[in-house]
Design a protein that fits this description.
4 copies of one chain form a homotetramer. Chain A has 192 residues and is mostly helical. The first copy, chain A, is 68% helix and 0% strand. The first copy, chain A, has helices at 11-28, 35-42, 46-50, 56-67, 79-96, 100-110, 114-141, 151-168, 175-186. In chain A, α8 (151-168) packs antiparallel against α9 (175-186). The longest helix of chain A is centred in the middle third of the chain and has 28 residues, at 114-141. The N and C termini of chain A lie far apart (59 Å). The model of chain A has no long low-confidence stretch (mean pLDDT 90). The structure holds a DNA duplex (31 and 31 nucleotides).
DNA sequence: CGTTAAACGAGACGGTACGTCATGTCTTCGA
DNA sequence: TCGAAGACATGACGTACCGTCTCGTTTAACG
């Protein structure tokens, strides 16, 4: 077993780094983010950050995973209602959070950076995707969703328009708009 | 009339810059892109680039606008079929092109950079969005799409899932997968 | 004979270049001087300057030669008095002119730049040195200066301390201080 | 006492910068000198130089102060002889060194650049001037020099002609010529 | 309770790129 | 042909971060 010799890492310092990263990220976005700036804002030496993360992308990936709230998956028994609520809450949270665009910027970068892609996949995407697929399957078993559509396609149909409207079309997503969009999207996957 | 005084800019040099930018972009993505590198690859001096574009973001925005093919909008008389074809061709082109992720990375950055946002809006988004809305309206008038759904919502329903599946879920979009997804999405907006 | 074909050079433009050079030289010195700045200040295009002078050093050498007043050599019959007056007037003029230090900076540079050295020698130094040597010889013939000291040594003895005090020691040279210094220096070369 | 925090500066690197500066200075003079070139020659990154000196002028001022030998002030008991020797050795050293003209170029520039003036004054001039004034005073007390001439004037009388002959008149100063010139200059300040 | 090994701050260092400026040459147009 | 205007390759400027590396100091856990 590995005995933890020497001075252990201070949890508080890690927290300060994360907090500073979030603050700067919200202020000016990913590409303007600097480890130098984070270090200064956190009152920490630069090598201390490198001791914990291999670089900017990994740091941000972790920070986002910690800070962007996971999908809230209610469980009222009404699987379809739960799914709609989850989708609406998801996009509202995203669009209110300063970190949403950052996450999507990273996803785009990830297409050119395998290491980053893995990091994101592991720390961020996985947790959110798996859980929603479970919910979708429950809704299908309850007979409320067309059973011949694979769960991941349902996911795309439900979440895709929301993301698109917010990220690409640049329209604000309040709870009301989001719900209307979700309701229309749902028509595609309802059993009939 | 304004007489063009002084030595005129060489068109060929501009072309070389654009070509080099595209090549490097495809190779290693936006964040690894360097004006220094572009200049070297184009056999051009760095100040020559700055004379034409104010910076990396603006250059890339222009280059993408020039290089990513605009929406192909067929006109066979079958407005719904045309819309589906346009959507499928769009996502296939995107996912085959090395520049797709770059464009979406920029869209995300634009949320923190108003200047970039304007550039992109003007040079890239506008042309693509307006034309597809016209097509959607024609389909609605033809009675094939539900008339009570605003055209921009139709756009989100049709394009959103494609983008999501490709960019977020990271799944390859061949013509066949794309068509299936579009067909399902269309159920949400068909008149019934 | 050379027939002057094409549009003749404008004398006025040359004058404007010289004037602008002098002004900028006085303001900020030689090393901060730019052809770009001169062109702008003179309302002239840069290539127009290059058509007349090969570069900054040559331009400045010419300008100084034109602008720093030549040695004033009075001729009252009293050769020794004339020499003293000439020396005093010389250093006072130098130290009051903004161009004095520039000239000495160039002299120093000339030790590493033969072309500049020739330019300066021809345009600036020669005229001043030769005339004073003549004056010294007259004083020697009049029996007022020791005859066994070569004229150029007399020149060094008389002018050297003035230059040194002003340039190296950085002391202001008003007419009164200068005269005192000259009088003492003269003791070295007077006949006794 | 101030504890030296952080990684200490490497003495060896500083030495390499100074050496490279000297070499390039001797080769091509001050105005052709480039921090870029120094960095390359020293095998050092450019920012490393800026960490130690604010710019080219300051670097060169320091380098000269370190490298141009200070006045050698012999002390044989014969104050006048010592002064003459010091003057001769000084100008011979200067005229043999490649850095002499550089120093005088800087002195001229300093008239337009207060910061440089201070640097030079502090690092270069001060040490040399003060010591020679002491020697002059001793010679005056020994009754060998006219007591009614301020020491700084004696300095100007003795050193001025040497500098002038070498820098302005451009004549080589071997030990023999220098001594002859000094002997004549001394006549001006000897007690009689 | 002292050892000891790692964490930590500070900051130097070789790099790389930035965005700007000036150079000297060139092309184009109008006078 | 001159002159203005300005493009262009070149190359240096001074600055900002990068990721790595010494340092001296602090802090626990272990022996």
């Amino acid at each position: 077993m590995i005995s933890a010799r020497g001075r252990p890492r201070s949890r508080e310092i890690g927290d300060r780094i994360v907090a500073a990263t979030l603050a700067l990220l919200a202020e000016s976005g990913y590409s303007a983010l600097t480890l130098e700036g984070i270090a200064k804002a956190a009152g920490v030496a630069r090598p201390t950050i490198y001791r914990r993360w291999p670089g900017k992308a990994a740091l941000v990936a972790d920070v986002l995973a910690d800070s962007i709230p996971p999908l809230v998956l209610p469980d009222t028994g009404d699987a379809v209602g739960d799914l709609m609520t989850a989708a609406v809450e998801f996009i509202v949270t995203m669009s209110e959070s300063p970190y949403g665009p950052v996450a999507y910027g990273l996803l785009a970068e990830a297409h050119h950076d395998d290491e980053l892609a893995n990091h994101l996949q592991r720390a961020y995407v996985a947790a959110r995707v798996v859980s929603v697929l479970g919910l979708i399957e429950r809704a299908q078993h309850a007979g409320r969703l067309a059973g011949d559509i694979p769960p991941d396609v349902v996911r795309d149909i439900v979440f895709g328009p929301l993301i698109f409207r917010w990220l690409v079309a640049g329209q604000p997503m309040d709870r009301c708009n989001a719900r209307r969009l979700v309701e229309i999207a749902f028509r595609a996957v309802e059993s009939r």
